[in-house]
Amino acid sequence: MILVTGGAGFIGTHACVELMQAGYEVVVVDNLVNSHEKSLDRVAMITGKRPLFFKVDVCDEKALNQVFDQCDIEGVIHFAGLKAVGESVQKPLEYYQNNLDADFVLCKVMKAHGVKNLVFSSSATVYSGDNEMPLNESSKTGNCTNPYGWTKYMGEQIFKGLCVADPELSIVLLRYFNPVGAHESGLIGEDPQGIPNNLMPYVSQVAIGKRDHLTVFGDDYDTPDGTGVRDYIHVVDLAKAHVLAVRYAAEHKGCEIFNIGTGNGSSVLDMVHAFEKASGKKVPYVVGPRRAGDLATVYAGTEKARKELGFVAQYDLERMCADSWRWQSMNPNGFEN
Ligand code: NAD
Ligand code: WQD
């Protein structure tokens, strides 16, 4: 059985679907601080089975121990964490405490139960801003611009250290680029609370009429159209990479890092136009100032994941936008009603 922490969230629900469809039994632990339990009913509608669920905070060692006592856990995917970059600047203590305590407690409880295999949600945000593109796994890390990024950077250091101390451990650090899109069923997808921080959910709320217009954060970057370029990856591709990583962890010892992206860069305006095409709706925008901490261009080197993990992203921008739009238009209020 695979334990999925944060399994009720955006990427976690998609990973549950792919794991279950690949034949794994899944148990989810989530405190629902940024998700709804209903998302797991939707997973059940897709897969025919609801994952076992415990409403537990990963930082609660006693409660997490009880989950491990009750379930025969062979490996863990650790998604649980707070992820809003701007909020992390306002509430650094909450971010350091939640994200790092979750790492510590999970590792302690895994150790107590002899569980050796872990896949961790890291982020392209751990890369330093002064690298050449594409970023590869040995590009420089650090110089994070916000507490959220530091929690991922520190998480990586903790997991690397544990693998040095215990050669029987197997930890895969996946550095995600920009996950977008939704399951093709339209039943699960990203459900941000309040004003979306990220581009795609914002664009999709403009298209459905919830927000008047998008603000493009700067059009004077050194990129083809002047707007920021990122490596957007379909969340179902990303979820599939987790199934590969679980298998990889079962067969290799030590700590290994993989970028999970497509290797392609798209600009903010590319995304706006692709979304307009997929939805048939206008996405009005105004150009505003640059957002602090943003880089002009970020995209992944994907060779290592292809060669060693066997991962290649399948879905293009058109499909990412079509699936996002299906989710948004079928669920204008997310999982609420
Ligand atoms: P999400 O907020 O939808 O999912 C995270 C889940 O973790 C939520 O369901 C939340 O309720 C839960 N959670 C948070 N703290 C918890 C705790 N202490 N105990 C139990 N549950 C807790 O976010 P997501 O987009 O699905 O991201 C999943 C992971 O991937 C996160 O660690 C995030 O930092 C990382 N990541 C996300 C992105 C992205 O752009 N979405 C990019 C890189 C990395
Ligand atoms: C994408 C592009 C913006 C919103 C963030 C985190 C990163 C990772 C993924 C977790 C940029 C532009 C955005 C808007 C805009 N998360 N934009 N108007 O910043 O690449 O990465 O999410 O690990 O850590 O930093 O993603 O979606 O916020 O921005 O013009 O309203 O869209 O400037 O060029 P980002 P994003």
Structural class by secondary-structure content: alpha/beta
Average of the residue pLDDT scores: 98
Q: Given the C-alpha coordinates, what overall shape results?
A: globular
Distance between the termini: 31 Å
Note down, in words, how this protein is organized.
- The chain has 337 residues and is an alpha/beta fold.
- The chain has eleven helices and 13 strands.
- It has helices spanning 10-21, 38-47, 61-70, 85-90, 92-112, 147-165, 199-207, 235-251, 268-279, 303-309, 317-330; strands at 2-5, 26-30, 52-55, 75-78, 117-123, 170-176, 178-180, 214-217, 229-230, 232-234, 254-260, 266-267, 285-288.
- Strands 3-2-1-4-5-6-11 form a seven-stranded parallel sheet, sandwiched between helices. Strands 7-10 form a two-stranded parallel sheet.
- Helix 1 (10-21) packs parallel to helix 2 (38-47).
- The chain is globular, with a radius of gyration of 19 Å.
- The model has no long low-confidence stretch (mean pLDDT 98).
- UDP-4-deoxy-4-formamido-beta-L-arabinopyranose binds next to helix 7 and strand 8.
- Nicotinamide-adenine-dinucleotide binds at residues 5-6, 8-12, 30-35, 57-59, 79-83, 98, 102, 121, 123, 176, 179.
Q: Could you give the topology of this structure?
A:
Blueprint: E1 2-5, H1 10-21, E2 26-30, H2 38-47, E3 52-55, H3 61-70, E4 75-78, H4 85-90, H5 92-112, E5 117-123, H6 147-165, E6 170-176, E7 178-180, H7 199-207, E8 214-217, E9 229-230, E10 232-234, H8 235-251, E11 254-260, E12 266-267, H9 268-279, E13 285-288, H10 303-309, H11 317-330
Parallel strand pairs: 1-2, 1-4, 2-3, 4-5, 5-6, 6-11, 7-10, 8-13
Antiparallel strand pairs: 9-12
The protein binds nicotinamide-adenine-dinucleotide (NAD) and UDP-4-deoxy-4-formamido-beta-L-arabinopyranose (WQD).
